[in-house]
From TrEMBL:
InterPro entries: Pyr_Knase, Pyrv/PenolPyrv_kinase-like_dom, Pyrv_kinase-like_dom_sf, Pyrv_Knase-like_insert_dom_sf, Pyrv_Knase_brl, Pyrv_Knase_C, Pyrv_Knase_C_sf, Pyrv_Knase_insert_dom_sf. Signal peptide: none annotated. Belongs to the pyruvate kinase family. It comes from the Bacteria. It comes from Roseovarius rhodophyticola. Keywords: ATP-binding, Glycolysis, Kinase, Magnesium, Metal-binding, Nucleotide-binding, Pyruvate, Transferase. The lineage of its organism: Bacteria, Pseudomonadati, Pseudomonadota, Alphaproteobacteria, Rhodobacterales. Pathway: Carbohydrate degradation; glycolysis; pyruvate from D-glyceraldehyde 3-phosphate: step 5/5. Residues 5-322 form the Pyruvate kinase barrel domain. This is Pyruvate kinase. It holds the Pfam family PK. The keyword Amino-acid biosynthesis does not apply.
Length: 481
């Protein structure tokens, strides 16, 4: 399905969007990727949504990516005798391993690994940072704290520990079960939560065994510190601004977002900007002006995708939320300032023949009357490198690999077309010209750029660039075999 924008839209599915009709409406409104949140719903309900998406994909003959998002370890306090208590600034409060019901003075925190890592002066955040505690003293089974910011603490509220790297694996037993289930279904992307260091990704990769592309959610300060090393190990990044904004001062998040987006683009790896993008549309058919500006900022930065969470999963206006994102994206990308910003942030990467080929393809397309760049790709790397250039003309990813086409649905500007397995370059050019015409990017009297690798069907061999006519008779009469 041709999109009239380059940035992609990720829509989370949930109670508000679990029927074929609604999911189809979301896709037609602009959703390119569907996120299945493994924190919510049973395996049966996840399987049902997966089957609906694959049926929709077949019905529309349009590659759709599915992203399964693992829950990760959730740190929560125990329960209170009264259900909740009010913590007052300056008061003392203990967290410990005692499973007795909590009081105004203490509560169970059933995570011994936290106490093992804590040191005096560390900060504990409760209920998305609304309550802030400072550790005064601690041991293997307790932490005595001072209430710095008070508030209501109640049963099972989440705890964040921003100051220390916790000795926790990124994958819980539940995550391992969910990972295997999602991979057996055939999801395209797998998102890892609570990643703190590169070895968390390496451990997950060993379990995934190339059955899905791996995305890391950056939501911990430790992951920010080790971002470059983590980026080397993954296929994509999600800037998860929710927990990141809890564990770091909120004013730190926008510059971090910009730096991470640019680093991902330089590495030719897709990056999603997520969390609270159109939060008010959970209950309102119209977004706030600030939310629209936030979405626009991510697009101006060159993010590959922008994501809806509760807006499409549990909100009252899921289709309207996707439509709003689509409208904002079209408007931003038609702004001359957008091209200025995108091109000013382009970094020259000249490390391989493929790098040179895709850079030349962009330059040729932008300095002549070329309508589209068609790149043949097996693994998706050539399309990713082409997208890194952020060309002014559309990109068609040509592949005979269904998995590759689906994964590329997350990548900026790439529209994938399935091709038969080809062995001759001339037939590749013919197929590219046909795709450009069928998608409405070019007419018979136009020209296109084709990139490919010879021999065909071997990943990583991009070595040919051809400026070709769209008229098939001219291709047959002029192109080499």
């Amino acid at each position: 399905m041709r999109r009239h924008r380059n940035v992609k839209i990720v829509a989370t599915l949930g109670p508000a969007s679990e029927t074929y009709e609604t999911i189809k409406a979301l896709h037609e409104a602009g959703a390119d990727v569907f996120r299945l949140n493994m924190s919510h719903g049973t395996h049966d309900s996840i399987r049902e949504k997966h089957e609906i998406i694959r049926k929709l994909e077949a019905d529309l003959d349009s590659p759709i990516a599915i992203l399964a998002d693992l829950q990760g370890p959730k740190l929560r306090v125990g329960e209170f005798a009264n259900g909740e208590e009010e913590l007052v600034e300056g008061a003392s409060f203990r967290m410990d391993l005692d499973d007795k019901p909590g009081t105004v003075d203490r509560v169970n925190l059933p995570h011994p690994e936290i106490f093992q890592a804590l040191e005096p002066g560390a900060t504990l955040l409760v209920n998305d940072g609304k309550i802030r505690l400072k550790v005064k003293s601690c041991g293997p089974e307790f932490a005595d704290t001072e209430v710095i910011t008070g508030g209501t603490i109640s049963n099972r509220k989440g705890v964040n520990v921003p100051d220390v790297v916790l000795p926790l694996a990124a994958l819980t037993d539940k995550d391992r079960e969910d990972l295997e289930f999602a991979c057996s279904l055939g999801v395209d992307w797998l998102a890892l939560s609570f990643v703190q260091r590169p070895r968390d990704v390496i451990e997950a990769s060993a379990l995934v065994r190339d059955r899905a592309a791996i995305m890391v959610k950056i939501e911990k300060p430790a992951a920010v510190t080790d971002f470059d090393a983590i980026l080397e190990e993954v296929d994509g990044i999600m800037v998860a601004r929710g927990d990141l904004g809890v564990e770091l001062p909120v004013q730190n998040v926008p510059p971090l977002q910009k730096r991470m987006v640019r680093k991902c683009r330089a590495a030719a790896k897709p990056v999603i900007v997520a969390t609270q993008m159109l939060e008010s549309m959970i209950e309102s058919p119209m977004p706030t002006r600030a939310e629209v500006s936030d979405v626009a900022t991510a697009i101006y930065e060159g993010a590959d995708a922008i994501m809806l969470s509760a807006e499409s999963a549990a909100g009252d206006y899921p289709v309207e939320a996707v439509t709003t994102m689509d409208n904002v994206a079209r408007e931003v990308e038609s702004d001359p300032t957008y091209r200025e910003v995108i091109e000013a942030s382009r970094r020259a990467e000249r490390m391989s023949v493929a790098d040179g080929i895709v850079a030349a393809a962009r330059e040729i397309a932008e300095t002549t009357d070329i309508k589209v760049i068609c790149c043949f790709t097996q693994s998706g790397t050539t399309a990713l490198l082409t997208a890194r250039e952020r060309p002014r003309v559309p990109i068609i990813g040509m592949t005979n690999m269904r998995d590759t086409a689906r994964r590329l649905a997350l990548t900026w500007g790439v529209n994938c077309v399935m091709t038969p397995q080809l062995t001759r370059f001339k037939m590749a050019v013919v197929n590219a010209a046909k795709a450009a015409r069928n998608l409405g990017y070019a007419e018979e009297n136009d020209q296109i750029v084709v990139t490919a690798g010879v021999p065909f069907n071997v990943p990583g061999t991009t070595n040919i660039l051809r400026v070709a006519p769209c008229e098939e008779s001219l291709i047959y009469s002029s192109d080499p075999e």
